[in-house]
């Protein structure tokens, strides 16, 4: 059974690119452009991996991450955080918040795939 | 004979020196008790009896019968009847530490130095004839012995000058030996008391000789008196009253009397003794006047100077020894008067004239006590010499011819002008400075005009015509017949008018003026002196508590300094431990140390409080208030400085906060730019890798991905363009390309440009036709850029089903262009931020980085206009305003 990845990202072009890359690898990708709707869906059906953008309309990536970790059902889900802000402060903040992995945009597709594979493997 | 006389004089003077010196020594050893007995006090008052009374009484008796008695009756009545006035004067003098008549008047009327100077001048002018009189009498009596002709009494040499110089020397030596705050001169007072005895003995000896030696006893003398014209009582009632009043008044006001009566007094109870003993002394002095006069008239040739009968009667009888004794009596009378008068006047002159001037022109010296001490002593000495020499000058100027008695009368009348201000000052709280000044000026002026100036003789200082017909022929201003009242005795005339004008002026001006606070305080102090002070109290260090002093000193100087001072002083006193005995020396030192911190007056008051020997006077309180005011001013300055510091600190904090804010803004800006750049680059990189790595990608997908890459690249480019544009605009490096054009053309171009962008909805645009008539003189391209932005925003963000944009134009000095669409508009929060950088309101994929309106605002600022959101228009509305300078009229 295909592993399910939930992608929470607001840039349509980036959603399309990541969906294409992951689908090509045989993963099941569910996308959400809005943090609020994504949260409900997460609880309804816990995915194997969450890819989370930091800057989202409505709710920031960190807020979503915190709620995710506070809920026992979703606390163990690996989270790959994406950010377009490259400053060291942002990196530190992400590491402290309890993400499983962290990537700065732009990234190479191979790099992204490698991270996703590692996280899915470690979660099993 | 002359040589003998000179020798006797010299010996006598040496004797006086010795007495004065011994008294000073005794006083310094603290054995001043016997020096300060009521007897010495009473005898010292005898300086009232000068050469005028010694010699002149007989002359006066010859000329005017018993009138000379009035001169004695005045002060006797004053002492007996006005005992309470004198007591009050003495009490005030002690509590206020008065040094002279001028000091009294000045202190009473609010420490007015003007008054002090006025009284000083009055005293100097009034006393100068009197000193001249003494010099004249001594000179004349010398001549009686020196010149063969016993009965002429004309001066031929410079005897007067020598006498003046000798007296000045004595006064300088004993009058300024030390500088005592109380101005007491033990040596001088003692010498004067001795002189009082000498002159009384001399006069009594001559009288006894005349009565029992020449007239054969009392009955013979009475027979002689009955036989002579003197026996007829020729008493002019008015003149008698006038003389009694005048001499009584003068007794209170004469500077030399004030000196011994008030300044040199150290025990109020002495007045009680003096009130009967001094009239007794005067009675003895006057006892033999008539017998001597009668005998002189009988024995001596007609035309002899009756003023010299006291000398010439014994001489004519070959009694040279008695004559020399008599001479010594006259000499004593003259010298004691000159000495005390010189001391009193020099105190006034140096305290009220010289020192104020010195302090004004040598401000630096004022705080160094040692320096000022020397200056004060020098001023005193020079003043003494000046006063005596002024007397000598008057003597030379007046020709020395006038009868002794009349010179004395002139002097008395002058000095008496102080009386209204003095009595008014100590009995009437309403008396004011202006009143005293007015009264003194009127009285003094009247005296000078009607008596003093005419006393030099007609034509000397006043033109003869003035005396006869009045100044400029104004009859009622004749000096000796003011207001047309002629025929009165000149002295009486002067006394009446001067005292009337003086008192009237004083009372009226006092009532009309309002006294200052210090005047009122001093007035209360003077008038109610018996309530404000207790009986005689001496400074006493015994009751001082060294510990209390220590506690106070610690409070003011700080514990360490105070302890060091006390230990040092204790060691100097040879005491072990840390507390010195509160000796006057130590108290003085402590006061000086404290004064450095709290000011002299406060220090004095504090030490006085603890030592308990002294109450705090109003003067001291005022000085304390002054110092407090200075301290307050100082602390106000400090406060101002600290406020200044606080302001600077606040400014620094503000600047710091601003920098922090800017730094945060810069970080946020960089973060935003990073985000805006990385987001399109992410898509570009991802899709280009997909295109490169994915084999067998469908052509549609290939096309789609390529166009995404293209769009994102365009978006990147636009972002970079905007950033550069904004940067240029913000840094003010923009070059404006000013051109003339019509607003409608610019709007059309903008609408067309905005429509060229395929993104966004179609918008129906209505443009105000007025725009076609508005000419602009501005950078048309930049303005167009703003318009394009606004139109494009409508296209991107207007949420109406059929978007419409109205462009309204209002021409005028400032052209107003409103862009209003029919969408739902912006929320108030959004309105606040839309002109900030990266402030995208919605997150629709509008493709903008949120820099458009920020750029528009920058452009409008550069063009001298403004752009703002226009709330309350239904849809989103922006208002662009161009200033007058760019809204050119049609050419």
Question: Can you describe this structure?
Answer:
The complex is a heterodimer of chains A (about 120) and B (about 900). Chain A has about 120 residues and is an alpha/beta fold. Chain A is about 45% helix and about 20% strand. A five-stranded parallel beta sheet of chain A has the order 2-1-3-4-5, sandwiched between helices. In chain A, strand 4, helix 4 and strand 5 form a beta-alpha-beta unit. Chain A is globular, with a radius of gyration of 13 Å. Chain A starts with a strand and ends with a helix. The mean pLDDT of chain A is about 85. Chain B has four domains: about 400 residues, Sodium/glucose cotransporter; about 70 residues; about 100 residues, Helix Hairpins (Orthogonal Bundle); about 150 residues, Heat Shock Protein 90 (2-Layer Sandwich), CATH 3.30.565.10. In chain B, about 70% of the residues lie in helices and about 5% in strands. In chain B, the strands form two sheets. A five-stranded mixed beta sheet of chain B has the order 2-4-5-7-6, with helices on one face. A two-stranded antiparallel sheet of chain B has the order 1-3. Chain B is elongated, with a radius of gyration of 52 Å. Chain B starts with a helix and ends in a 9-residue tail after the last strand. In chain B, about 45% of the residues are buried. The interface between A and B is medium-sized, with 25 and 23 residues.
């Amino acid at each position: 059974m295909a592993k399910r990845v939930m992608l929470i990202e607001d840039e349509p072009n980036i959603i399309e690119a990541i969906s294409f890359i992951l689908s090509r690898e045989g993963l099941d990708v569910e996308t959400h452009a809005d943090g609020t709707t994504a949260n409900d869906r997460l609880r309804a059906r816990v995915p194997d991996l969450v890819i989370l953008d930091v800057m989202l309309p409505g709710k920031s990536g960190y807020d979503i991450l915190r709620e995710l970790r506070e809920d026992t059902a979703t606390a163990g889900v690996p989270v790959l955080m994406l950010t377009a802000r490259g400053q060291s402060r942002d990196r530190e903040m992400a590491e402290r918040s309890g993400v499983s992995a962290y990537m700065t945009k732009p990234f190479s597709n191979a790099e992204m795939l490698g991270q996703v594979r590692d996280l899915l493997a470690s979660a099993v | 004979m002359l040589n003998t006389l000179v020798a006797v004089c010299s010996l006598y003077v040496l004797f006086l020196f010795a007495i004065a010196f011994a008294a000073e020594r005794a006083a310094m050893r603290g054995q001043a008790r016997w020096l300060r007995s009521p007897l010495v006090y009473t005898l010292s008052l005898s300086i009232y009896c000068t050469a005028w009374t010694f010699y002149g009484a007989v002359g006066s008796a010859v000329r005017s019968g018993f009138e000379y008695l009035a001169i004695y009756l005045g002060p006797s009545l004053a002492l007996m009847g006005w005992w309470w006035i004198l007591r009050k004067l003495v009490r005030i003098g002690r509590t206020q530490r008065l040094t002279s008549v001028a000091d009294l008047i000045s202190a009473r009327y609010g420490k007015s130095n003007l008054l002090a100077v006025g009284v000083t001048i009055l005293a100097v002018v009034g006393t100068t004839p009197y000193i001249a009189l003494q010099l004249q009498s001594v000179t004349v009596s010398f001549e009686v012995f020196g010149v063969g002709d016993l009965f002429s009494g004309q001066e031929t040499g410079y005897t007067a000058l020598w006498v003046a110089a000798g007296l000045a020397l004595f006064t300088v030596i004993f009058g300024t030996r030390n500088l005592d705050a109380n101005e007491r001169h033990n040596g001088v007072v003692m010498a004067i008391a001795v002189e009082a005895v000498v002159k009384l003995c001399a006069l009594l000896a001559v009288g006894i000789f005349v009565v029992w030696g020449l007239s054969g006893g009392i009955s013979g003398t009475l027979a002689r008196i009955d036989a002579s014209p003197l026996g007829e009582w020729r008493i002019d009632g008015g003149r008698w009253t006038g003389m009694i009043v005048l001499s009584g008044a003068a007794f209170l006001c004469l500077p030399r009397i004030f000196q011994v009566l008030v300044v040199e007094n150290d025990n109020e109870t002495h007045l009680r003794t003096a009130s009967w003993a001094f009239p007794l002394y005067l009675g003895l002095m006057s006892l033999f006047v008539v017998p001597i006069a009668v005998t002189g008239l009988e024995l001596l040739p007609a035309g002899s100077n009756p003023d010299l009968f006291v000398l010439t009667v014994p001489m004519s009888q070959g009694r040279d020894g008695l004559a020399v004794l008599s001479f010594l009596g006259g000499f004593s009378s003259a010298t004691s008067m000159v000495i005390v008068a010189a001391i009193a006047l020099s105190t006034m002159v140096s305290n009220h004239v010289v020192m104020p001037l010195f302090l004004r022109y040598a401000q630096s010296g004022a705080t160094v006590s040692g320096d000022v001490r020397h200056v004060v002593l020098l001023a005193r000495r020079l003043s003494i010499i000046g006063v005596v020499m002024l007397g000598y000058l008057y003597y030379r100027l007046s020709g020395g011819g006038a009868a002794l008695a009349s010179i004395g009368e002139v002097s008395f009348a002058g000095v008496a002008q102080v009386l209204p201000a003095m009595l008014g000052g100590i009995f009437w709280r309403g008396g004011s400075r202006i009143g005293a000044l007015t009264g003194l000026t009127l009285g003094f002026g009247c005296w000078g005009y009607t008596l003093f100036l005419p006393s030099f003789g007609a034509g000397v200082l006043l033109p003869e015509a003035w005396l006869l017909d009045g100044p400029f022929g104004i009859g009622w201003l004749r000096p000796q017949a003011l207001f047309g009242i002629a025929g009165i005795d000149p002295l009486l005339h002067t006394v009446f008018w001067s005292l009337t004008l003086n008192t009237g002026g004083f009372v009226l001006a006092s009532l009309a003026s309002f006294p200052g606070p210090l005047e009122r305080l001093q007035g209360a102090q003077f008038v109610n002196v018996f309530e404000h002070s207790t009986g005689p109290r001496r400074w006493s260090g015994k009751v001082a508590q060294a510990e209390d002093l220590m506690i106070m000193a610690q409070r003011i100087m700080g514990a360490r300094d105070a302890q060091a001072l006390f230990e040092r002083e204790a060691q100097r006193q040879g005491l072990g431990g840390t507390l010195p005995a509160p000796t006057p020396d130590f108290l003085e030192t402590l006061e000086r140390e404290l004064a450095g911190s709290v000011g002299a007056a406060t220090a004095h008051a504090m030490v006085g409080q603890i030592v308990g020997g002294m109450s705090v006077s109003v003067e001291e309180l005022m000085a304390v208030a002054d110092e407090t005011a200075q301290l307050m001013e100082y602390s106000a300055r400090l406060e101002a400085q600290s406020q200044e510091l606080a302001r600077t600190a606040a400014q620094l904090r503000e600047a710091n906060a601003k920098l922090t804010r800017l730094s945060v803004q810069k970080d946020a800006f960089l973060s935003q730019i990073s985000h805006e750049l990385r987001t399109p680059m992410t898509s570009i990189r991802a899709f280009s890798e997909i295109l490169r790595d994915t084999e067998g990608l469908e052509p549609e997908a290939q096309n789609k991905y390529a166009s995404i890459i293209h769009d994102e690249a365009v978006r990147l480019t636009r972002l970079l363009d905007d950033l550069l544009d904004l940067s240029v605009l913000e840094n003010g490096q923009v070059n404006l390309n000013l051109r003339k054009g019509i607003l409608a053309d610019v709007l059309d171009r903008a609408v067309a440009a905005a429509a060229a962008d395929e993104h966004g909805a179609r918008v129906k645009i209505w443009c105000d036709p007025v725009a076609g008539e508005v000419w602009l003189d501005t950078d048309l391209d930049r303005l167009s850029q703003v318009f394009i932005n606004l139109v494009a925003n409508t296209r991107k963000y207007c949420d109406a089903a059929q978007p419409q944009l109205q462009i309204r134009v209002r021409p005028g000095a400032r052209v107003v262009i409103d862009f209003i669409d029919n969408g739902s508009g912006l929320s108030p929060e959004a309105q606040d931020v839309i002109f900030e950088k990266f402030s995208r309101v919605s997150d629709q994929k509008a493709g903008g980085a949120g820099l458009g309106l920020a750029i528009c605002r920058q452009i409008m600022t550069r063009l001298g206009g403004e752009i703002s959101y226009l709330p309350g228009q239904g849809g989103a509305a922006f208002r662009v305003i161009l200033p007058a300078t760019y809204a050119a009229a049609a050419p």
